[in-house]
Amino acid sequence: xxxxxxNLNMNSKKALYxxxxxxxxKEIKDGSIVPFTKLPAKRKxxxxx
Length: 49
Known about the structure:
- The protein is mainly alpha-helical and 49 residues long.
- 45% of the residues lie in helices and 0% in strands.
């Protein structure tokens, strides 16, 4: 399973979920996340963040 390590800014005007969405979208565009890659479950991601 993929380990996500986004750099989220808690003081940003952007919501955290938007920052996370943009991070995942960028990783897909850059080829770091390939098709059929399993993403972490919400609970595991929440604990990690």
